[in-house]
Every structure is written in C-alpha cells, then in structure tokens.
Amino acid sequence: MNEKKPTVVWFSAITCNGNTHSLLSSNSSKFELFLKNFDFIYHGSLTIDKSLEDIIKNQEQIDFLLVEGAISSNQKFFTTSNDSTKNILEKLVQKSKYLIAVGSCASFGGIHAKFTQNDDVCGLKDAIEEENKKKLKHPIINLSGCPVHPEWIFQTLFSLKNFKEISLDDEGRPKELYGTLAHHGCTRNEYFEWKIEGNFGQKEGCLFYNQGCRAPMTHSSCNKILWNDINSKTRAGMPCIGCTEVDFPRNNMLETKKNMGIPLEVPLGISKRAYLSISGVAKTFKIDRLHKKLME
After folding, report:
1. Has domain 180-296 been given CATH number 3.40.50.720?
2. Domain 7-176 grouped into CATH 3.40.190.10
3. Most buried among 115, 156, 206, 270, using CB within 10 Å?
4. Domain named NADH:ubiquinone oxidoreductase-like 20kDa subunit: which ranges (predicted)?
C-alpha cells in the first residue's frame, strides 16, 4: 500500500508573485521529484481542483503551509477575497503542521512593509497570534530572499518530511542554507582580497567597494547552490543586494555608503579597525595578473 503523500498548500498574500516564478524556474527533475513526493493540493495560480475556500472548509489537516507575501489585517490589500490576508492566514495555520515563509516579504515584511507606509503590513512571525503559533509542530521557518531560491524550498520540504525538524538561526532561517555568507563561493573573492574594484556588469573585479555589494554580510548560499545550477548575481556581474536579510530593502542599494572614502559597514566577523589595517596593506600591492584580467 502506497504511503500517503504529505499535503502542500501555497497561500499567496500581498505579493508580486516573484517566488512563484522562482518555483517555476526550478530544475525540472527536482520539481518532478517534489510532485512525486508531495501532494501539491493548492496554489492560487497553478492548481484548479480546489479553491482557497475549499481548503479552509475542509476538515483535513495541511502538512506544509507555504506563504508567499506580506500579511495585513486590511482587506484592501487582498482583492480576490472579502477577507484579509491575516484572517485567512490564521484559519490556515490552525489546520497546519508546518508553516514556511517563502521569500523576504513573508519572512520579514520586505518591500511591501517598507513602501506601503502601513505598520500593519508585516511578516508571518508578527502577524500570527501566539496561540496559533503553539499549535504548529515546528517554529515558523523563514526562507528569505527576493525571490527565494527554488532549491531552498525543496530542500526544506524534504528535510522536514524525512527528519521532522531542522535547525534555525536567530531569524528563523535554516542554518544549513543560511549559515554561510553569499560571499562564500563568490568567484570574485580574489579581487575582494586585493581591493580591486570592478564595475556593474563586468566579468571581473569586486563589487563591494563602490557598487554596494552586500555579499560579505549577507547570510545566503547563493554562490554555493547556484541558480539554474550555473549562475548567481555576483557571477553575472550584479552586486548582491542582501535580499535575505531582515533590513532588506535598504535605500541606495547599488551604492556603497562611505565615510571619508571608507565603507561604513565592513564584512561580518572582523572589527572595523582590523579590516582597515588589512585593507591598507592590500592596497599597497599591485597584482598585475588581476589588473590585466580586469582590463580585458
């Protein structure tokens, strides 16, 4: 007798649907493996068998509730229902075993919380009543990112399916995925070490000193688990914008904020004084090989 597959419900709240697009851009074989092992019973844009009202009224429990987008008690932010995203979320959470925030808006409020100028717009942790949080079998899991990497979604679901729990950092993110920095695995690290700056779109050079790259202080595995198995922002010549962090989005994201020519923020794990000393020494050297590659 075949084992019953765990159910997955995807609730799209206040969102641009970027995480849905990310999911659809995943590796086809991994997406197929996901569908073989999970019963994907509802997504507002991808499934047709059941409505959101059917899911809420159904007596059966939801194994994995995935939420894309920020939450608000204001009905005007959710035009496909007469209810608010907060009320709908509370109803779904009462039926769910695991709750996963998909993307930075669901995790921390993200762009919607910042630009709606409304204190009521927030991420899942701040939106859900404490008594409903206690009903969950696991603390809320934040898969932050704008959008989130599809592989992180699959890896989290399979880890929970097989092991029932995963280790989280202080922001509720899986340590296995967010325990290192986007800087780790970056192909531009040698330029970073010798303080050789590149420009937006260039194949060579570091993007930290002038272009606003946040990779040295952003918890993410983007340069280890590559997008489409081949690429990442920094590999394509785009500065990391720190989209997995609580303070995303920041103002002037493609610009390095400085004081007297010195970056205001230094890489995680090193004091500012030590970093300035190392930088001063590195800048006294000229690595011809790297400068030549930068000019090619």
Report:
1. no
2. no
3. 206
4. 16-159
